[in-house]
Amino acid sequence: MTMRAARPRCEDLRGVVPIGLTRKRDAIAVTILSLESYSDGFVIHFWVGGGPAVFKSASLPSNLVPATEVRLEIEDNAARRYHSIFLGGGGSDQAWRLRYVGNPSLDSATELTIRIAEIRVRHEDPFKAVPDEKWVGPWEFRVDLGSIRSG
After folding, report:
1. Residue 139 CA to chain centroid, in angstroms?
2. How many Å apart are CA 119 and CA 50, to the nearest integer?
3. For the chain, which domains are there?
4. What is the DSSP string of 49-102?
5. Per-residue pLDDT at 55
6. CA 20 to 30 Å from 48, out of 25, 91, 96, 104?
7. Does residue 95 carry a pLDDT above 90?
8. What is the dihedral of CA 51, 57, 63, 67, to 10 degrees?
9. CA-to-CA distance for 139 and 35, rounded, in angstroms?
10. Distance between start and end Cα atoms, the chain
């Protein structure tokens, strides 16, 4: 069962978990930089990179604005699933930093499994259709949340 709630405001910080784990698949590297835990949800910070040899956006006209999306599956040690929403990010034709907000809060979780099922890069050109780039994962991370409890 996927748990859904109102989008968290993320104002009451409970702790930050520095993660720094990287997974590679098909020349795409994904790093989870950190996780912020709040009373009503959490924020995950990602770095996604592959370089110009991987992302065809490097060879597309500069008027195109690439938009990167990841499809997340988040589950805790008690098999609870969490909902996530893209919060923001930016980057270039070689790498992006992305932030996703999740809910509900991580009150009883001691470990998260964060799985990126798919990465998609959309190219928005007002004059013609440009095909999306897509890579299928998974890129999977297990994150110990113990430092939130003890910090």
Report:
1. 11
2. 12
3. 10-150 (2.60.40.1640)
4. E--TTT-GGGGS-TT-EEEEEEEEEEEETTS-EEEEEEEEEEE-SSEEEEEEEE
5. 63
6. 104
7. no
8. -90
9. 17
10. 30
